[in-house]
Design a protein that fits this description.
By secondary structure, this protein is an alpha+beta fold. The chain is built from 5 helices and 5 strands. The longest helix is centred in the N-terminal third of the chain and has 26 residues.
């Protein structure tokens, strides 16, 4: 239901479908986390110790997942700035082809006989050539 609301708002504001999908996934994760913490608190579990532990664990996980988080942030920037779009012919990091999909972690480039997944952090830090159609 919450995801449907995000899709409805995104459609009403005429956001790109990739942005709506990203927001939908973020809302789903936040609602799931909130629900688990609330359920544990209701069942008598000491939630304050869990939240404090999550803060410390989040700090450690931030370092462990640094590359994944860099790709997610880069994916959000690509989706918001739109330097290229789906079906554009691009060259990035030595790979050339049509952009098949842009998601939170990878930009998928379709070459003649292969599908290339380029991490979004690489796309953001490398020169990108977008060819005219």
């Amino acid at each position: 239901m919450l995801q449907a609301l995000v899709v409805k708002i995104g459609t009403a504001r005429r956001l790109h479908t990739e942005m709506v999908t990203m927001f939908r996934q973020l809302v789903k994760g936040a609602a799931l986390t909130f629900g688990v913490v609330t359920a544990l608190g209701t069942s008598g579990f000491n939630v304050s110790a869990l939240v404090a532990g999550l803060g410390l664990s989040g700090f450690a996980l931030g370092f462990a997942l640094k590359d994944v988080l860099a790709n997610v942030v880069a994916g959000a920037l690509i989706l918001s700035y739109r330097p290229f779009q789906t079906d554009d012919h691009v060259s990035v990091a030595g790979f050339e082809g049509l952009v098949a999909e842009i998601d939170m972690r990878y930009t998928t480039i379709q070459a003649d006989d292969r599908r290339i997944l380029v991490p979004n952090s690489t796309v953001m830090t490398s020169p990108v050539s977008v060819f005219k159609r």
